[in-house]
Amino acid sequence: MNKQSQKFYLTGHAGKMECVLDEPEDGTPRGIALVAHPHPLYGGTMDNKVAQTLARAFVGLGYVTARFNFRGVGASEGVYDDGRGEVDDMEVMFDYMLQQYPGLPVALSGFSFGTFVQAQLQQRLTAQGRPAERLALVGTAAGKWPMPPVPPDTILIHGELDDTITLAQVFEWARPLDIPVTVIPGADHFFHRKLVHIKNLVAQLWRRDGGPGPAL
C-alpha cells in the first residue's frame, strides 16, 4: 500500500471486498478515482506497483482514490469471474464512493486486465446515463479480452517493449476509435524502472486536456 493508504471493507456481490483509500494531502478532494489492478489469476493485486502508481498520480491531482482486491485475491471473498463479477464489484465501489463524496466527478483507471474492467464499467455507466468523467488506461488489454470502445478523451499509456499485450494489438483497437496512444520507450508490460513516467504522464495529460490543476 501507499504510505497514506487506509484499509476498509465493502460487501460485494460475492462477499467481502478488501479495499484501500488514498486521500489528497489537503483533505479536500476535487474528484474520485477508482483504480483496477491486473489479472487476479496471474498475481495481480491492488498492491501492484502500476496500480499504486496510478493511485499516487490521482492523489497528486487532488482525487480521493480507491482500489480493491478482486474476488479471491487477498482478503476479498469469491472466485475469479472472467471480468463479469469484477465489473459488478467495481460498480459497488463506484456507488459507495459517490455516497461518501456526493457530487464529485469520478475517474476510472486501470492496468492490464483492470483496463478491461474499467472500460466495461464505463460502457455500463454510460448506458445508465451516469458515465464517469474520464478514463486513464495503462497496458490496455486489447487482444487479450474483448475491449469495448472508450471515449475519445481516454488516456492510453503503453510500453514500447510490451510482449504480453503488444503495441500492434493496442493500435489495432485504438485506430478506429481515433484515440492517441502514449508510448513509453523501453518499457515492458510491467513498466520496470519506468513507473515515474506513468505518474507524470497521467498528471500532465489530465491537466493539459482539461482536468483539475493548472494547464501545462
UniProtKB/TrEMBL annotation:
Entries under InterPro entries matching the protein: AB_hydrolase_fold, Hydrolase_4
Segments forming domain Serine aminopeptidase S33: 49-153
Keyword Hydrolase attached: yes
MF annotations from Gene Ontology: hydrolase activity
Keywords from the UniProt entry: Hydrolase
Keyword Hydrolase: yes
Domain of life: Bacteria
Protein name, per record: Alpha/beta hydrolase
